[in-house]
Design a protein that fits this description.
single chain, alpha+beta, Butyryl-CoA Dehydrogenase, subunit A, domain 2, Butyryl-CoA Dehydrogenase, subunit A, domain 3, four-stranded mixed beta sheet
Length: about 400
């Protein structure tokens, strides 16, 4: 709640009042994939008009240039109001923006950044069958022929690629140098000849991810980001964009979502059930710890004290709390919690406990697997040595 000691009280009040008037009340009622996409596009357009869609962009863009403290207020109020998350445009406003802003040339920035605000959507073509989180193992091949590169290969787990207009594509242009040095980064038209997208039907009924098949797809040299062979460095700019404030938003949303568990206790569980109350208390403490870590992360970033691995700590804490939250909901919800609604797309508070529970396991992989995050924490924060490659057994 805002008070006289809140330096962002005016901003908080403004956002809160806007949400009262504009938050869509029926956003969970989208029963088809098409309805979900339409709802997401409409909500994104409203946020753009209000200046709330891209607070992390520079000040020359509508609503951009906000301080980290102002961004925190916006995320807190969106979570508190139970407004829909921007899932369809997430790659566009974070990954595509970060890539173009940090590594794109002036022509690429001028061409594509305004289109994002007009609703053009992007997907990411990094992961491949057999490569997974190991970007250095990418095998999708790009061969230069005059003014174009000819691309052949396959990508997988590309979020909402079936709805995307463009793709951030990582492909191999050389097999003779070190694996990382042989990668090149491209901006690909998803409607180009030779691009085939197949949605992946998930266990809970969503089709949040897709496979992308590339058969002699031509990409102009002008759509290359950076120099040939610099794709690994460009990809780091892309990946860094999904860590940090986005994790803060999810933490705040989980805090608000605790009321769903409390409602279950009030309706289906006995108030004197010590086991239920104990588990709810433990979950509440776990969620508050995530929010405290997120707040600490923000303070460190604002004060220039952020370390490599800070975001990994928040990310792992969030994914564990999400599993505990959704598991308790399923346990308390009885038979009703076993049902699922058709469309959830990984939303934390979908109105569907079983879908939330199944989605919670995806968060142990998305944005960097738990194992990768633990390695970052161990090696980069704690200074622990890497595991020896050759063990000698006595």
């Amino acid at each position: 709640m805002s008070n006289v000691n809140d330096p962002q009280a005016a901003s908080r009040s403004e956002v809160r009042q806007w949400l009262v008037e504009h938050r869509p009340a029926d956003w969970r009622d989208a029963a088809t994939h098409e309805a979900f996409v339409a709802s997401q596009r409409n909500w994104f357009a409203k946020l753009v008009d209000a200046g709330y869609a891209i607070p992390h962009w520079p000040a020359q863009w509508p609503g951009g240039g906000r301080s980290l403290a102002e961004q925190k207020v916006l995320y807190e109020e969106l979570a508190s109001a139970d407004a829909p998350r921007l899932l369809l445009s997430f790659v566009s406003t974070y990954h595509a923006f970060a890539t173009l802003h940090e590594c794109g040339n002036d022509n690429q920035k001028a061409r594509y950044l305004p289109r994002i605000l007009e609703g053009e959507t992007w997907c990411q073509g990094f992961s491949e069958p057999g490569a997974g989180s190991d970007l250095a193992a990418v095998r999708c091949r790009a061969e230069r022929k005059g003014d174009v590169y000819v691309i052949n290969g396959q990508k997988v787990w590309s979020t909402m690629a079936q709805y995307a207009d463009r793709c951030l594509l990582l492909a191999r242009t050389s097999t003779e140098s070190a694996k990382q040095a042989g990668l090149t980064y491209f901006l690909m038209d998803m409607k180009a000849p030779g691009v085939t997208v197949r949605p992946i039907h998930q266990i809970q009924g969503d089709e949040e991810f897709a496979e992308i098949f590339l058969d002699n797809v031509e990409i102009p040299v002008s759509e290359r980001v950076g120099e040939e062979g610099q794709g690994w460095a460009v990809a780091q700019a892309t990946l860094s964009s999904e860590r940090g404030l986005t994790l803060m938003e999810l933490g705040y949303r989980m805090r608000g979502a605790l009321s769903r568990v409390a409602d279950l206790i009030n309706t289906v569980a006995r108030h004197d059930d010590e086991g239920v109350l104990r588990d709810f208390g433990a979950l509440t403490g776990q969620v508050e710890a995530v929010c405290a870590l997120a707040d600490q992360f923000l303070e460190n970033r604002m004060n220039g004290l952020e370390q490599i691995g800070d975001a990994s700590v928040v990310k792992n804490a969030y994914s564990r709390a999400l599993r505990a939250y959704s598991a308790l909901g399923v346990r308390l919800g009885g038979m009703a919690a076993q049902y699922r609604t058709p469309i959830t797309y990984g939303d934390l508070n979908s109105g569907n406990w079983m879908a939330d529970f199944m989605n919670s396991y995806a968060w142990t992989i998305a944005g960097g697997s738990e194992e990768v995050q633990r390695n970052i924490i161990a090696e980069r924060m704690l200074g622990m040595p890497r595991e020896p490659k050759n063990w000698v057994l006595a």
